[in-house]
Amino acid sequence: MRQSAICLIILLILTTTTTAQTPTDSVKQGVRRYIARNFSEARTFNLYWEKTPFHDYTLMQNGKEIENGEFRHINTVKFSVTVPVLLLKNFSLYANGQFNSYQFEANNNVNGGKSAIFSQNDDGYNYYEGILAGTYRTRIAGKPLILIATAFGDGWNKGFGKAQGIFSAIMIFKQSPTTSFSAGLFGMTLYEKIPVIPIIAYTHQFTPDWSIDLTLPSRSYIRYQPNNHRFSMGASLGSEHFYMKPGMKGIPEVSFFNRTVIKPEIVYEYIINKRFYLIARSGGSALISGGLYGTNRKGIDGDPYIKFKQPMTPFLNVGFSYNIF
């Protein structure tokens, strides 16, 4: 599952919700207070640093264990930029760029030496991604419909990786000062077993400070927001991926490592001013699936040629965001 593309699609849903219909000014103001209350989803710059303690991992091939090791000194840095390129009445074009750096040491628990797979790159693993997303807003049966076409490509320090596309259709069924409900589908070009995934976005404000945010399959939170502080408790679904050279016989020279995790977490956000945000989150990271795949990533939702396993691990993530607009 491509986390960054899904998050961008969700962002486009939220940022185009009020422009996809023509409510009165009072309702617009109410929606704006309800959805964000100054915690805008469309943040221009995002920078995060994540720390994970030492933990074991296991690599399996053809049902047999080929390596039992330990990750040490694990640090992840993620930086992203999202900017509108073109904003018209019914059409918008957004550009997004992302850089992820994964730094860690991997040792073999059996012989005490370096990992046979993860120690081929002493400089860490860097991953780059660029996304261009266009949205078109129309109406069907009186309901706002948002069509989103997304094209993106990725790469690493050794060169370009793979290009793919996603098409999404989301209908807004309800939008009021306290409640929003949207549902739709998006399809992906590089997936075989699950080519289409549903999207559901539901938010509801119970009181001026308490609300619920369900944006599936990406996240689900209960939020409490007094003034410029916001506390959230829930879970998010995400993935970490990068290109690598395993350096093992019988394995392609260049592989694509991917692990999908679910993170039960507590999140704290603070608005320094109208543009700067501080974010801290902590919780656990539970592996859903992971492994080494071919660089074309066809069927990444299927079986990898090397399976990756790890226990649930705690994490601490801190960062900041800046919003130009």
Task: List the topology elements.
Elements: H1 3-16, H2 25-35, E1 45-52, E2 55-61, E3 64-87, E4 91-108, E5 125-140, E6 143-156, E7 159-175, E8 179-188, E9 196-205, E10 210-216, E11 219-224, E12 229-244, E13 255-271, E14 276-293, E15 306-309, E16 313-322
Antiparallel strand pairs: 1-3, 1-16, 2-3, 2-15, 3-4, 4-5, 5-6, 6-7, 7-8, 8-9, 9-10, 10-11, 11-12, 12-13, 13-14, 14-15, 14-16
Description:
- The protein has 325 residues and is mostly beta strands.
- It contains two helices and 16 strands.
- The protein has helices at residues 3-16, 25-35; strands spanning 45-52, 55-61, 64-87, 91-108, 125-140, 143-156, 159-175, 179-188, 196-205, 210-216, 219-224, 229-244, 255-271, 276-293, 306-309, 313-322.
- The protein has a 16-stranded antiparallel β-sheet that branches.
- A hairpin with a 3-residue loop joins β3 and β4 (91-108).
- The chain is globular and about 65 Å long.
